[in-house]
Amino acid sequence: MKTKTGLSRRQFIQSNLLAALAASAFPTIIPSSALGKDGAVAPSERVVVGAIGVGERGQAVLRHFLQQKQCQVVALCDVKQDVLQAAKTMVDKAYDSSDCVICEDFRVLTGRKDIDAVMIASTDHWHVLHALAAVRTGKDIYLEKPLGLTLAEDQVLRREVKKRKRVFQFGTQQRSGRKFRLACELVRNGHIGKLRHINAWAPGSRGGGSTRVVPPPETLNYDFWLGPAAFRPYTEDLAAFELSKKTWWFNEDFALGWIAGWGIHAMDIALWGAGELASGRLGVNGTGRFPTEGACNTATDWNVDFNFDSGLTMKFASSPGPGRLTEQLGREWVARYGKIIEHGTAFEGDAGWIVVDRERILTQPESLVEIETPPELLATRLVRSSDHVLNFIEAVKSRGTTASPIESAVQSDAFCHVADIAIRLGRKLRFDGKAEKFVGDREANQRLGVRPMRKPWRL
């Protein structure tokens, strides 16, 4: 962080402290932490962070930021006053201070010139608007997944991030897990031979959801919460705090459901491992199930096949289970891989296979899991990170590349949108991954476009 004189903030602070000492007739004791010694990070060298959206997921991510010595959280924003106060209490306790500022309007936070970076974990339909506000005021971005409600939103954000040279980290934190990086490097460096097929799966969305109209909670600014979404009466549990109760995540006015909300984790690892094999044109078709009653209307189950012109094939499915659309698929996977958990990614090659999830990595042949090639000897080397938030903070300071940059974020999000559109239209589609549009299908492409937004909100 440079001052107008060209000095770093640290140099500027140190020079002024020394000048003050020289001018003083009395001895002054300055703690080593003020100069960044003894393992402490000087305030002048810390990344100043604000957070937008501090509900259940937001607070979970916020805890990781509070653990980082290289950053300081100074401001929080949310349209729920009880949630906002709870998050402030958490920050105040972490810093033993009450200096953290809270606000309801995100523009107050993004307008602050002292903030370097913004963590965003708001409701999905706000993600891109919040990120754009931050980027356009010179902030770096840590954005929870998924990206936008449409691919067109994603593209606008990518353009702004690149135009303004902002650091961007997507909340696909599996990229900072050793197992996932190892699996993808093994695949990319040919240890299972030529990659032929990928299986990626994640929990399906839930159905139901109350349609009973009730007054919004007194602590919620409901109109601001709706934001760009069309007005609708508040229904019970629409904006509930607990994951098990909230219904907005499973309503297409606000989200795509777990085909993107959870599915993007498995999809992201699939694409990370596939590399260029998953670029270019492809065919896609699939089936899905949707709730027939209640407030939830996103896909509860899906089974989608991608056929790339490169010869690679990929299946993207909701987690197998009794009575589900993918029940038979689950039996086949268990027979091949052994026990599987509710989310993961499997790579199939000419000379073996790899399955990776948050519990383990399995390989065939088994000796593959023992391989740990020095990075300098890898033909294809992926970003090494053991802490997703720290990786972001360090990139903010160095202006380097993050583990989950905007380019891969858009690609992973796009494939989730393509899968959702394929099952909603119920027909085979052709998608051009480089042009980011369907081939010869106006209706499908319309679903990729920007949705109407309630005034005054716009991209």
Features:
single chain; 459 residues; alpha/beta; Dihydrodipicolinate Reductase, domain 2; nine-stranded mixed β-sheet; 14 helices; 32% helix; disordered N terminus
Structure report:
The structure is a single chain. This protein is an alpha/beta fold. Among the domains are: 45 residues, no CATH class; 251 residues, Dihydrodipicolinate Reductase, domain 2. The protein is built from 14 helices and 15 strands. The strands form two sheets. Strands 13-12-11-7-10-9-8-14-15 form a nine-stranded mixed β-sheet. The chain has a six-stranded parallel β-sheet with strand order 3-2-1-4-5-6, with helices on both faces. The chain is globular, with a radius of gyration of 24 Å. The two termini are 29 Å apart. The N terminus is likely disordered.
Structure in a nutshell:
With 459 residues, the protein is of the alpha/beta class.
Beta strands, count: 15
CATH architecture of the domain at 175-384 and 406-446: 2-Layer Sandwich
* Radius of gyration (Å): 24 Å
**Strand order within the widest beta sheet:** 13-12-11-7-10-9-8-14-15
How would a crystallographer describe the biggest sheet?
Answer: 9 strands, mixed
Spans with pLDDT under 50 lasting ≥5 residues? 2-38
- Overall, the morphology is globular
Our estimate of the beta-strand percent is 15-25%
Could you state the oligomeric state of the chains shown? Answer: single chain
Q: Give the CA-CA distance, first to last residue.
A: 29 Å
In which range does the helix fraction lie? 25-40%
Count of runs of 4 or more consecutive helical residues: 14
Helix/strand/pairing category:
alpha/beta
CATH topology of the domain at 175-384 and 406-446: Dihydrodipicolinate Reductase, domain 2
Task: State the order of secondary-structure elements, H for helix, E for strand.
Answer: HEHEHEHEHEHEHEHHHEEEHEEEHHEEH
